[in-house]
Amino acid sequence: MLQHAVDPHVVHVLKERVMTEPYSGILPIAPTIFHENGDLDIEGNRRVMDLMVDQGVDGICILANFSEQFLLTDEEREEVMRLSLEQVAGRVPVIVTASHFSTRIAASRAKAAADAGAKMLMMMPPYHGALLRADEQGMIEHFKEVGDACGIPIILQDAPLSGVTLTVPFMVRLAKEVPLVRYFKIEVPGTANKLRALVEAGGSAVAGPFDGEEAITLMADLDAGATGTMTSAMIPDLIRPILTAHAAGDRKKAAALYAQVLPIINFENRQCGLRSAKAVMKEGGVIKSEAVRHPLTPLHPKTREGLIELARELDPLALRWGK
């Protein structure tokens, strides 16, 4: 697919299927595309937005950890946000990650995202380095100030990277005291049990319990009550049917579909990380470079070969979109 300009007629048709709250389904993380010299690849990033819409995603999350947000300057963050929202042009909701230890900076990022047209924020709890953390009251105040600044829903990312232990009682308290925090992406050991407890304890305050970590525990998480997942952008077109079947009550079909894609999900999760989507997109002609920024390193050629071998067996859209 070589057309990158947004057709107004296509936008009009797609807007008819744009999700409204409560958000559910598959909301993958978009990679940030660089040239081989490390500069932002503006055209490459635009092509990724078009690919993801064509993959049938229910939303697109930008500037997350899998987007290498920790390797971008503030100016680059602003540029990626602007071009992504501009290119998507309302075809699907865009979620902007706005995490920062500073409440002031997080609130500023949140307001800028909302003003630019983002439909939701994703945030980790405030942390910095190995030791700086906010206590529970500090986290409540942090998210309240961010919510007041933006006025759009927030999905809380519960991931080991932050080093913050988010208990189910605290997350329920947060959802009730700061109602904009009503979505939760859980990606910790024992995710299914935590999701199940969160759904049971949170009730209507939890609008969207989400699976994460590349869908490595997707079936267990769906069984526990997850209503969506935030994967990478590598194979969302192949993961979405799993969610559709499970939501329709056909668990047997969902499990069979999951079994087909689990080898590549495992390979991504355990061997490649955020580099996997870029590698498949480069192989499929979507982008010209799969470069990551130093100190991250490229995939070893043998690891990349193994990933592409698995991808070819599945024939995802990313592997043929640009050819």
**Total domain count:** 1
The Rg value, from CA coordinates, equals 19 Å
Overall mean confidence score, pLDDT: 94
**Percent of residues in beta strands:** 5-15%
SSE pattern, N- to C-terminal: HEHEHEHEEEHEHEHEHEHHHH
Gross CATH architecture: Alpha-Beta Barrel
Per DSSP, the total helix count is 12
Largest sheet: 8 strands, parallel
Structural class: alpha/beta
Poorly predicted ranges: 1-17
The general outline is: globular
Biggest sheet, spatial arrangement of strands: 1-10-9-8-7-4-3-2
Instruction: Please bin the fraction of helical residues.
Output: 40-55%
Kindly report the name of the CATH homologous superfamily: Aldolase class I
Defining key terms:
TIM Barrel, eight-stranded parallel β-sheet, about 325 residues, about 45% helix, disordered N terminus, two-stranded antiparallel ribbon, alpha/beta
Could you characterize the architecture of this molecule?
The chain is α/β, with parallel strands linked by helices. The chain has one domain: Alpha-Beta Barrel (TIM Barrel). The protein is 46% helix and 11% strand. It has twelve helices and ten strands. It has helices spanning 8-15, 42-54, 74-88, 103-116, 136-150, 168-177, 191-202, 218-223, 236-247, 251-272, 275-283, 301-314; strands at residues 25-26, 60-62, 94-97, 120-123, 127-128, 132-133, 154-158, 181-186, 208-211, 228-229. Strands 1-10-9-8-7-4-3-2 form an eight-stranded parallel beta sheet. α6 (168-177) crosses α7 and α9 (236-247) packs antiparallel against α10. The longest helix has 22 residues, at 251-272. The model is unreliable at 1-17 (pLDDT under 50).
